[in-house]
Design a protein that fits this description.
Blueprint: E1 3-6, E2 9-12, H1 19-34, H2 48-61, E3 105-110, H3 113-124, E4 132-134, H4 138-141, H5 152-164, H6 169-172, H7 174-180, H8 191-201, H9 205-212, E5 218-222, H10 224-227, H11 229-233, E6 243-247, H12 253-260, H13 267-291, H14 300-319, H15 335-341, H16 347-366, H17 374-391, E7 426-429, E8 432-435, H18 442-457, E9 461-464, H19 471-484, E10 528-533, H20 536-547, E11 555-557, H21 561-564, H22 575-587, H23 592-595, H24 597-603, H25 614-624, H26 628-635, E12 641-645, H27 647-650, H28 652-656, E13 666-670, H29 676-683, E14 686-688, H30 690-714, H31 723-742, E15 752-755, H32 758-764, H33 770-789, H34 797-803, H35 808-818, E16 830-836, E17 853-859, H36 863-872, E18 876-881, H37 887-893
Parallel strand pairs: 3-5, 3-6, 4-5, 9-18, 10-12, 10-13, 11-12, 13-18
Antiparallel strand pairs: 1-2, 7-8, 14-17, 15-16, 16-17
Domain Helicase ATP-binding: 7-301, 430-724
Region (Disordered): 70-97, 493-520
Biased composition (Low complexity): 79-91, 502-514
Length: 896
């Protein structure tokens, strides 16, 4: 690998670096060497992640070799004593950090685990092998049969309790595993790798990551581990005075920091706190009588004071005069001190309160040890917290752990434990019978009323409901009740005890194309609900909520090949390369997994009548053989409700694959829609990177050759395979590349900017217009077929899987965006921009000496993406989140 000397540091880089990459690494090293903070901006596709990793790790290595056998650029690593040779002490991160505190520690943070996974993948492409670890939540990593089913604080508390009692065999085996595998971390690993270790070998992935993290060169973590005070407290051993924090993808860091420094005290949370304080009073009394102890930490008087303060706080909040329900009650931030001082809560008294609460945590973890066991305790803690977080009721489960205080009986209805599904409460709302898993609060009934109003009247709706009020459950129950009012759920699925309309068994009619919805006409007389959220983990939680209801609609969930592919070769690819390889192998019938889908579906035609998730499909694929990706597509052809990520609806390319959906009878629900504006704007924009354009030219040239070979072999005059078409395409792309390079850019920082309508003038000089673009799109579609098939004399299933990439589809998407609807009115919401850039470091077709410029067309009106749904004639669009306000401006921005 090339080595660059930058500011006296030898930086190994996987490829020949461009000037802007060297400049970027120079700025990183300047910040690190001088101990300064830095804000670094670099356009997408410039390899900033790779530059960050290589420069930061080269700087770290300049202090000494990487820890425990890890090396970079061929160097060895400093050895650490084997795990277990010193007391393990607490399980908090960094208890042995003093071993390596003489060396700086790099903490690399990004917003999501999927982003961190990509960063770790980039690390694997370098020569650096630092000692590393990655942090994740118990939700991502727990493999305990009971605890893994819990969420949030319930899961954390159950884990703490079981570990304290040494009732978790997975955590108990961590020490022995680490003794035998002390080198873990010397090679890059991800959370999925740890989970695989846990499932195959037994040790807890969560605590393995903590143990490895005690002495590292670089630690990968989500933002919240650094920004959130509660999470940061668990990182007690980090040598902060010798740490470097890198926040990648930091464009949304302001809002995350603001959220972390803010709080919302919900009424159900406050009520739960009062109940917990009362329980602590009782536990203290029991503990003192049993142990005959006068320990001040367990003085019931402390918790009586805490309970009285919380009740006074609840009363004081209720006494505030709110003139407008819409505006609420607002004061300057400093008013909080005046407000709390009337309850004698000050800076000094708060210290005593915090000590009391810390003692309460210990008491509530231990509970009544005479009644608890590992399984019972995990479930008891779960019910309390789960109810707080999902259905909006802090005291749904009354009994062994909590009881309802008489003074609050009028404010909060007394509940017994959640009733079985068969006896769930039923609410008649707007003439629709809605089954709900619990006794609903007024705000939940109001929310469901608004959902039903939107659905019945075919109107769009923006619905805001605070976190913890059970909006997901309300959405599901009201929408599915409305759907059921048209007729029973499809193929054996029932809700509230009803049977389901039967569909012909899979395979009894021609399957046709594998696009979604080819048989949608079977059920088009019934509305289809499409439930979208931003990430798969959010959808997983929604499907979990569906399982808690009595509704059993016919359902399916969509995911990417990256999440679902189980083919040995194709599963290793990413993006378009993976999609094209899959298409090719399926077309040639070289994929045994896809070949077995038909037979599997004939034998399992009821699949979808019970809720399932992507992980369930992957398990089916790995144990039974059929392709999870195509199973989900087959089930999706006739459903009552379909779960999908945002991009399947908003991105034009993905939406084209949903060819069979009856849009005029579809309801779109966008959950967690607070960031929908930026997603819509991104979907309506494009960046044409120089390496993509170079690749497109190379592909056009390949198509010319393939056409000539095909014509000579088949002696065919098929116009679709006329090499002249691809010669014209290649010439146009080369002219476009030249024209971009000829633009005069006065400032590299500002680039070249024009109004959005300039794109038409710019392209018309190349004779690319609304009319000619249609011919170009047809040519590109033909190119995709040619490149998939390739030279059949030379290809085999394995070779083709690794070779297939079609960058020309990028040009197709760009033409669709520019000439959408054949008009130019949307251009007024765009900006034309060209900036100096370099090609991505991982591109196999980069050509030195070419103009390194990116052509961008940026959309500043997110409503353009939503207008596409209006053109499709969808029945209703519902956007919901905990924070959508101000609603009027959001409705205007999204053209709703």
């Amino acid at each position: 690998m090339p080595v660059y000397s930058i500011r006296g540091v030898d930086v190994d880089f996987p490829f020949d670096a461009y000037d802007c990459q060297i400049t970027y690494m120079d700025r990183v090293l300047e910040s690190l060497q001088q101990g300064k903070n830095a804000l670094l901006e670099s356009p997408t596709g410039t390899g900033k992640t790779l530059c960050l990793l290589c420069s930061a790790l080269a700087w770290r290595r300049s202090f000494g070799e990487f820890l425990r056998g890890g090396g970079g650029g061929g160097g060895g690593g400093s050895q650490q004593p084997p795990y277990g040779s010193q007391p393990s002490g607490s399980q908090h991160l960094g208890d042995t950090a003093s071993q390596s505190s003489r060396y700086p520690v790099i903490i690399y943070a990004s917003r999501t685990h999927s982003q961190l996974r990509q960063v770790i993948k980039e690390l694997k492409a370098t020569s650096y092998r630092p000692k590393m670890s990655v942090l994740g939540s118990r939700e991502q990593m727990c493999i305990h049969n009971e605890v893994s089913k819990l969420r949030g604080r319930a899961q954390n508390n159950a884990c703490h309790y079981l570990c304290k009692k040494r009732w978790c065999r997975h955590q108990n085996s961590v020490t022995e595993y680490m003794r035998s595998n002390s080198e873990l971390g010397s090679k890059p690993f991800d959370i999925e790798d740890l989970v695989d270790i846990g499932r195959t070998k037994g040790p807890c992935p969560y605590y393995i990551s903590r143990e490895v993290s005690k002495s590292v060169d670089i630690l990968f973590a989500p933002y919240n581990y650094l920004i959130d005070p509660g999470n940061r407290r668990s990182l007690t051993g980090i040598p902060w005075d010798n740490a470097v924090l890198i926040f990648d993808e930091a464009h949304n860091l302001e809002s995350i920091c603001a959220d972390a420094a803010s709080f919302d005290l919900l009424p159900n949370n406050l009520t739960s706190c009062i109940a917990e304080a009362q329980e602590c009073i009782q536990l203290c009394s029991v503990k003192r009588s049993i142990e005959n102890s006068a320990d001040k930490q367990f003085d019931p008087e402390n918790y009586a004071i805490l309970k009285a303060l919380l009740m006074a706080l609840e009363k004081k909040i209720g006494e505030l005069v709110i003139d407008s329900k819409e505006l609420g009650y607002t004061k300057p931030g400093s008013y909080i001190y005046e407000f709390l001082s009337e309850l004698n809560i000050t800076s000094e008294t708060s210290k005593k309160l915090i000590d009391t609460i810390d003692g309460a945590s210990l008491l509530l973890e231990e509970g009544n040890s005479a009644e608890t066991g590992p399984k019972m305790k995990a479930k008891a803690t779960f019910h309390v917290n789960e109810c707080q977080q999902t259905s909006g009721d802090a005291l749904k489960v009354l009994g062994r752990r909590f009881f309802l205080l008489p003074s609050h009986a009028s404010a909060i209805p007394a509940h017994s434990p959640p009733t079985p599904a068969a006896a769930m409460p039923v609410y008649s709302i707007r003439g629709v019978d809605v089954d709900f898993p619990f006794d609903a609060y007024d705000c939940q009934i109001t929310y469901m009323d608004r959902v039903l109003e939107s659905l019945q009247q075919g109107k769009n709706a923006l619905l805001e409901s605070p976190t913890g009020t059970g909006k997901t459950l309300c959405l599901l129950c009201s929408a599915l009740a409305w759907r059921r009012s048209f007729g029973e759920f499809l193929r054996g699925g029932g809700g509230g005890g009803g049977g389901g309309s039967q569909q012909p068994p899979y395979g009894s009619q021609p399957s046709g194309s594998q696009h979604l919805g080819d048989t949608a006409s079977q059920s088009s007389r019934y509305p289809v609900i499409i439930y979208a959220s931003r990430t798969h983990s959010q959808l997983r939680q929604v499907i979990k909520e569906l399982k808690a209801t009595s509704y059993r609609p016919k359902m399916s969930v969509l995911g990417s090949r990256e999440q679902m592919c189980i083919h040995n070769e194709v599963s290793k690819l990413r993006g378009r390369a993976q999609n094209n390889a899959c298409h090719y192998l399926c077309k040639k019938r070289w994929c045994r997994h896809q070949n077995s889908v038909t037979e599997y579906m004939r034998s399992n035609s009821e699949l979808g009548s019970k809720p399932f998730d992507i992980e369930d499909l992957v398990d089916i694929g790995r144990t039974k053989g059929p392709c999870p990706y195509y199973i989900s597509r087959e089930v999706s052809k006739s459903v009552d409700i379909l779960f999908a990520p945002y991009n399947y609806l908003i991105d034009p390319g993905n939406r084209r694959s949903l060819t069979g959906i009856p849009w005029d009878n579809a309801v779109l629900i966008f959950d967690e829609a607070h960031n929908l504006e930026s997603i819509c704007a991104d979907a309506a924009s494009f960046d044409l990177l120089p390496n993509n354009l170079t690749s497109c030219i190379a592909e056009a040239q390949e198509c010319i050759q393939l056409c000539s070979v095909k014509r000579s072999i088949e002696n065919s005059a098929d116009k679709q395979f006329d090499p002249e078409n691809y010669a014209i395409l290649k010439a146009l792309l080369m002219a476009l590349e030249k024209k971009i390079g000829e633009l005069v850019i006065d400032s590299k920082e500002l680039g070249y900017t024009k109004p959005g309508s300039y794109i038409y003038e710019f392209l018309s000089e190349l004779n690319i217009t609304s009319e000619t673009s249609k011919k170009l799109i047809d040519t590109i579609d033909g190119a995709s077929l040619l490149l998939e098939e390739g030279n059949s004399a030379e290809t085999g299933p394995k070779m083709k899987a690794k070779a297939t990439v079609c960058r020309l589809e990028t040009i197709r998407d760009i033409l669709d965006i520019i000439f959408r609807g054949g008009g130019q009115n949307h251009a007024k919401y765009y900006r034309f921009h060209v900036n100096e850039c370099q090609q991505t470091s991982g591109d196999a077709l980069k050509v030195l000496g070419k103009a390194s410029r990116t052509l961008s067309w940026w959309c500043f009106n997110p409503g353009l993406a939503m207008e596409e749904f209006l053109k499709l004639g969808v029945r209703s669009i519902i956007l919901t989140s905990g924070t959508l306000s101000p609603l009027d401006s959001l409705a205007m921005e999204l053209n709703m």
